[in-house]
Amino acid sequence: METENLLQQAENALQKVDYKTAQDFYFQAVQKNPQNVDLWLKLHQVSVAANNFTGAIDCLIFILKISPFQDYVVNLASDIFQKLPFAVEKSARQNLRNAIQENPENIGLSMLEAKLLMLDAQNTDNFDYEKALLIRATALISAKSEFIPALLIKAQIELYLAQNLLTNSLTHTSILENKSESRNQQNSKRNQKFFPKKSKRLIEKVQNEIISIFPYLQYSCKEKSECQKPITAFFTTGRSGSHFLQSLLDGYPQVSTFPAHPFRGFLNPKYQAMQKLLAENVGKTWQENFIINFCEYYAELFDASLKSPFIGYGYGEGHMYFMGLTKMGKNSDEVFKLDKLKFFQYLFLSLQNFTKENISLPMIFRLLHYAYEFALDRNPPEKSCIFYHYHTHCDAENWLYLVTAFPQMQFLEISREPVQMMESHFKSTMKENNPLQTGNVVTQKNENLLAIGGMRLLNAWHQMSLSFENFAYDKELYLRCACQKSATIRLEDIKNNPKTALINLLKWLGVKNATWHQSLERETFGDFLYAGASQNKIKGFDNSHLKKGQGTFFSQNDLRIMNLMLYPLCVKFGYRPKDNDYLQKEIAWYENVQKVETYMDFEIKIIDRLKQDFPNFENSEAMAPYFYRVKWAKRTINYMKKYQENCVGFAELLGL
User: Fold this and answer.
1) Global pTM?
2) Which of 86, 246, 438, 441 has the most CB atoms less than 10 A away?
3) Residue 616 DSSP code
4) What pLDDT score does 190 carry?
């Protein structure tokens, strides 16, 4: 109650424009509530109004002591320091340094001192002193800091230092060249040759010094030419080895790919990636806004154990976790992490070359890949192509916005023996943690059983139908995509003939002088060993699971149906010869003897299990997957009747 009275009296004084009295009352209030940041801010505001800048600075420094992660407080203090008279500023700066000595781990105080040192550097004409100030400033902030505004300040200081080093080296060179010219007028042929060489060596020396401190700078001048390099969109039908292939290409000197597929849908306008990444934060430049927002939406890229939804991913949080990126390394006990500071350094520098008006989402997409490679201590200009794992089927919508963003976009699909692929998909859908596992009927009651059964079954059928339609049914899409460079590679070829298949693929991707590299011999993401999302025992080029053949999930009757449904895919990609007699006989059997509407064997198991807890299951909406399957089967049969002599497809097989 006493605090409320003090605050009321302070407000009354403010209404009378009596700042001195208001300041006294607020000071009494903060003495009674020393941990209240809002009260300290009020006292700071009144102190500024009363022209008591020393008191205002003291308030802000105290706030940073009790609450270090206050970026806006650092900016307020920096502005006020510039308004102080020299003698007062000198004393306040000493107080700040004393506070840092007492609180060496306080990131807020360190940020403030770093910003002030950068201002000092801007106000001196002494190049050596300027350089020393900037080096002191950047040393105040640890590269391991997790506080994004602090890393941004560090990146800004280093960029400023690097630019000044280069500017001063060129100025010094110009002086030498002028001296050279005056001596040349004295007919000195020796000097005519000597000084240009000396100038060149001086520039190289200073540039090397800069690059040794800030290695990311050597790449920035090449970005615009680098942006002409090809991008390949990689699509998959599920359980076909897409992450295995991607993890082999990771680390190849000329290929850039982010781990798993965090940027799925990134270029789709409906997800509004540009608007979200450029959303304004108070007191920040558009480049700073971009980096801060990117780290919010893509926090898992820097630490896979964190959970945040990605822009355009289409699912919730935990993508990196579900893709196995928290169980990496030889013993599956390492978490994928990316160096934030290096990533920000490269990206912050790159964005200086653009304005908010002329930066585009496709350009940002490329720059993110370059920043990622730099953060891994790789050389971005070496990367001749970007491998963009889209991790879904290529329908008309996906195709349209990808070729709109990148008119020269290439399209790659990976296939696996289709029936095996679908068996693997169904098995993964019915894992042991799912009470619908068909191999071992679980008896425990589960309130969500109905929803789980319906959604999981629908998901599996949905993937299967998309797999077929993507390759064979949608002729209009095929004709559109035929204008683009596109191909399909088989998982079996990668497993059985890795050197031939992968070298041919690299050439197709646009890698010049593609040769075998040790990175192709192991599965990695960002140099961490990768065991896959399922953490199974199948490693590297082990093809034992492919040799098992069909029948690991489906009954013999179901296998007959699946082989018919996936016949066009099997023929298209060389898994079986074309046989029109077989096709006509099997279509007649399925329509007239088996009947399309009859439950498949595995459907019977699932339905019987669900009826234990939900007797009216067959009359519920959860039967939608079954009706979806029947509709899809009839559509597929009609297609095969019409196109049995000409099974078109999305992309031709990439030959060995």
Assistant:
1) 0.73
2) 246
3) T
4) 34
